[in-house]
Amino acid sequence: MPQFVDVLPVDQIKNGEMKSVIADGLGILIARVGDQYYAAINTCPHMGAVLSRGRLEGTVLTCPRHHSQFDLKDGHLVRWTDWKGIKLFVAKLLRRPRPLATYPVKVEGGHIYVQV
After folding, report:
1. Helix or strand run (H / E) with residue 27
2. Lowest-confidence range among 25-39, 55-69, 81-95?
3. Which of 3, 87, 100, 101 could lock onto 41 through a cystine, CB 3.0 to 4.6 A?
4. Pick from 85, 78, 5, 66: which is nearest to 39 by CA?
5. What CA–CA distance (Å, rounded) separates 42 from 36?
6. What is the DSSP letter of 6?
7. Could you tell me which residue, 86 or 33, shows the higher pLDDT?
8. Using CA atoms, how far apart are residues 109 and 98, in angstroms rounded to an integer?
């Protein structure tokens, strides 16, 4: 049964920043955008890159390996990749476009909790 796990004090993450944490044995990315906090799996569902090493613009996260973009609000795929030609063709054969797994977040008592 899913439960909320304390992963990080709110003062440990700045606006526009991402952190890598472990929650119940899972590698989770925590992002702060303004006063909102988001949680997602920290591994790209396409190429396995560590997403916390990517780029965050608003709630859109860009994979550092193949530049897929995901919206952290719900994990939907904004852009699969910026590759072109044969590289894109082969990538689509091997790894079909998929959304990013996201997790519910709550903030209580100065701590960020993720439901896993």
Report:
1. strand 26-33
2. 81-95
3. 101
4. 5
5. 18
6. E
7. 33
8. 35
Per the structure block, which two tokens stand in for 81? 């990749």
Q: Which fold has domain 4-115?
A: Rieske Iron-sulfur Protein (2.102.10)
Residue among 58, 52, 18 nearest 34 (CA): 58
Q: How far is CA 40 from CA 35, 87, 98, 114, in A?
A: 17, 27, 14, 9
Lowest mean pLDDT among 27-36, 40-49, 67-76: 40-49
Please provide the DSSP assignment of 53-93 as one string. GSEEETTEEE-TTT--EEETTT--EEES----HHHHHHHHH
| pTM score of the predicted model | 0.91
